Amino acid sequence: MLVLVTGATGKVGRALIARLGAMAPDVKVRALCHNRVLPETDTLSVVRGSIADREICRAALDGVTHVVHLATCKETPDDVMDVTVKGLFWLLEAFRESPVAQRFVLIGGDAAVGHFFHRHPQPITEDAPHRAYPGCYALSKVLEEVMLEQFGIQYGIDWCCLRAPWIMEKDDFRCSLSFGDDLFGGPDWKEMVGPEVARRSRETGAVPLLLEEDGTPLRRNFVHVDDLVEAILLALTAKAARQRLYNICMDEPVDYAKVAAHLARTRGLPATPVRGPYVGNWMDNSRAKAELGWRPAYDLARLIDSAWDYARPPEEPRRVWYPG
Fold first, then answer.
1. How do the domains of the chain map onto residue ranges?
2. Is the pLDDT of residue 115 over 70?
3. Between 321 and 301, where is the model more confident?
4. CB-based contact 270:204 (threshold 8 Å)
5. What does the alpha-carbon distance between residue 14 and residue 38 come to, in Å, rounded to a whole number?
6. 8 Å CB contact between 145 and 106
7. pTM attached to this predicted model
8. CATH fourth-level superfamily of 2-167+222-247
9. What is d(CA 66, CA 101) in angstroms, rounded to the nearest whole number?
10. What is the pLDDT of residues 52-82, one digit of tens each?
């Protein structure tokens, strides 16, 4: 098995390559790297270049049996069509022309169904309609899923899409709840509450308690990188995964009121209510459990505690490599 991993230097790519490297000796990995490069080893080779380049994609796919496509763009309009859309097209073209290619695994995102921008009247299953929210990132996630499915219809390729919500590792979740400049992702709490409330929240270590406009505590979907990697490993070879889409998420969405209660009880931290224009939804992961035998190891308590317990060493400064 030769597995091509795009987006190999990101949090999911690195974790996945580490797991693949620990598997059977006949499992080899090829990393397609662009701005950052991984060191080559006995089991890891590297192709450097952009997936927007057709010849790079052909070279990267040479001899590859399985693809895990992680590379993406966030809210970068100048790049998103070349990288996310054209890049996936070139990868799929090279994949369908290959005599040895077996399965193409795309890591999609809940932005394709509007996550906390569009309300779904029931739990979000894999049959929910695409509903991009404003911006280029959500649109690109819709286009990815549609293109992948159509290549299956057009050419009969074996594909699998794992639709993931916001992916957490290390202290990501703690930083996602910061009122300071170390905020990871969005929304930007300090902009929502104003400078004085943000200052008090920083001083007291308060966490945001996100509310919908009617005052209902909001629920948002997350997945830990370890759980996503386990799902990828299953999806690479599971017979049931042929031309299937799976929601890969925690069993329950994160309820911001429960987050606040847990941190008040275990860490003595206060909470700052923040009312916003967002809506809560519940992603249903039943299909992945039934067909792949996958189970998430992280629940709400473990997600919170692991983020607060993580001690970042000095040689590992926190860096966010993409906007959003």
1. 2-167+222-247
2. yes
3. 301
4. yes
5. 9
6. yes
7. 0.95
8. NAD(P)-binding Rossmann-like Domain (3.40.50.720)
9. 6
10. 999 999 999 999 999 999 999 888 899 899 9
Backbone φ, ψ for residue 188 (5° rounding): -90, 100
Query: Residue type for 176, please?
Result: S
| Secondary structure string (H, E, C) spanning the chain | CEEEEECCCCHHHHHHHHHHHCCCCCCEEEEEECCCCCCCCCCEEEEECCCCCHHHHHHHHCCCCEEEECCCCCCCHHHHHHHHHHHHHHHHHHHHHCCCCCEEEEEEEHHHHCCCCCCCCCCECCCCCCCCCCCHHHHHHHHHHHHHHHHHHHHCCCEEEEEECEEECCCHHHHHCCCCCCCCCCCCHHHHHCHHHHHHHHHHCCEEEEECCCCCECEECEEEHHHHHHHHHHHHHCHHHCCEEEECCCCCCEEHHHHHHHHHHHHCCCEEEEECCCCCCCECCHHHHHHHCCCCCCCHHHHHHHHHHCCCCCCCCCCCCCCC
Paired tokens of 270: 């206060």
